[in-house]
Design a protein that fits this description.
This protein is mainly beta and 225 residues long. Helices cover 3% and strands 55% of the residues.
């Protein structure tokens, strides 16, 4: 895979593995954390280096929400800063949906700025989502992403996460040479007011495009507020 810095030979893809579905009610919430890498849809976006990440989200009214998320990233300016918002509601007690838009912004490399829409369905601890952008991170072509997964609660406050996704479309093919699948397995635990996580991610990309998308382990620690 090609990195996102223009001073290096061409560019890669984006965003993190840690964007949970927004809560329904309450006041503003946020987090700050450190991850051993910034991996988005199976691809390292920080040159396999540690990344400081933070975010804040607030409910608005009638199921609407808005938020701001940022991370160290391997781009000109060294930062990704995202704005997002959406609407979430229950259909039944266990089944909900989430309609959202995210603006991926790169202050030092604005040609990569991307607006992506999302439809997500949640049932208990199962979830599935579809993402679409008409301009896939500076390619001027569209990109699609389907994802499905589960966040399974375990005794003692542990949680196991499993997930898989498929990225495709002309924009994805321009970035990576082909559509691809990504896979993720994670375990999370809150302890002493901190949130700890460990994950293994991989993709089925091949050749030079797989350099930043091979199997890797990521560990993280953060604190919510």
């Amino acid at each position: 895979m090609k990195r996102m810095k223009t001073r290096k030979p061409m560019a890669g893809l984006l965003l993190a593995a840690s964007m949970a579905a927004p809560a329904f009610a309450g006041g503003p919430t946020g987090f700050i954390g450190l991850s051993s890498d910034y991996v988005f849809r199976g691809v390292s976006l920080n040159n396999e280096s540690p990344a400081l990440q933070a975010g804040i989200q607030t409910p608005l009214f009638g199921g609407l929400y808005a938020g701001l998320w940022g991370s160290k990233a391997d781009v000109e300016g060294d930062v990704e800063l995202d704005l997002y918002g959406g609407y979430k509601a229950h259909i039944t007690r266990e089944f909900s949906y989430d309609l959202g838009v995210r603006n991926y912004r790169f202050p030092g490399e604005s040609r990569l700025d991307t607006v992506e829409g999302r439809v997500r369905l949640n049932w208990n601890w199962l979830h599935t989502a579809y993402h679409y952008t008409p301009d896939y991170f500076g390619t001027d072509d569209g990109g699609h992403h389907f994802a499905a997964g589960a966040d399974i609660p375990l005794p003692q406050g542990f949680k196991i996460g499993v997930g898989a996704g498929h990225s495709f479309g002309d924009g994805v093919e321009r970035r990576f040479g082909e559509g691809y699948n990504d896979y993720r397995l994670s375990v999370n635990k809150s302890w002493q007011g901190l949130d700890f996580g460990a994950a293994v991610t991989t993709t089925d990309l091949n050749g030079a495009e797989a350099r930043d998308a091979d199997t890797r382990a990521v560990i993280s620690v953060g604190k919510g507020f």
